Amino acid sequence: AQKITQTQPGMFVQEKEAVTLDCTYDTSDQSYGLFWYKQPSSGEMIFLIYQGSYDEQNATEGRYSLNFQKARKSANLVISASQLGDSAMYFCAMREGDGYSGGGADGLTFGKGTHLIIQP
Amino acid sequence: KAGVTQTPRYLIKTRGQQVTLSCSPISGHRSVSWYQQTPGQGLQFLFEYFSETQRNKGNFPGRFSGRQFSNSRSEMNVSTLELGDSALYLCASSLDGRGMGTDTQYFGPGTRLTVL
Predict the structure, then answer these.
(1) Confidence (pLDDT) at A32
(2) What Å distances lie between residue B101 and A9, A36, A96, B34, B109, CA to CA?
C-alpha cells in the first residue's frame, strides 16, 4: 500500500480562489511528521508547512494551512487567495519514527504530487 | 543564512562512467539526506548521513554510495552509470540531533544528471 496518496494529479484554479490539495497517509508509527513542499519548474523543493503527529492545532504559515485529521489520516494543504506564482507541483511527504529506536527517523516518503495551475 | 547548495547543477555522462555529486548543507545543519527524482518513480530516498555516518538507507543498489565530511558537507557517488540513473538528485539538510520525524528537511536546487 502507498504510504502517501495524493489523488489529484492536476488542478486548475482561478486566481484569488482558495485551493485544497488532498493528501492521505498510512503509518503505524505514533510519532511522525507531515510536510508539504512546492516544486516550481526550476526543480528546487521549497518547504511550505509542517504538522507533527502530536500537534493538536492545525499548522498555519501565512497563506498556507494544513487541515490535519488524524483519525482519517488526512493532511490536506489549503492555500488561501491563490496567486499566479503558486503554479507548481505540490508534494505531500511523511517522515516516520522518533529517533529513539537507534536508527533514527526514516527518510521522507513522498506522494506523487499535484500539478497546480493558477489561471488569471 | 545561505541555503543548501549543490554542485554541479547539470551533468552529462555516458553509460559505465561514474559520477560524484556534492552538497553543502545550511550552516549549523548536521544531517544530510539524498533523494532521486524521476518521472516514473517519483521522489525516492537514497540515504541520510549524520556525523559522518550513514544513518538510514533507501532501497537502491550498492552502486549508489555517499559520505559526509566533518564539516557536514556530503558527496554521493554513482558508479557504473546506467541509462535509468538519469534523474534529478536532490540533497536536503536538517538541524537534527536525533533524526526526529519532526525535523524539517530543506532542499537544495538539485543536480540534473543525464546518462547517455
Answers:
(1) 87
(2) 27, 14, 5, 16, 23
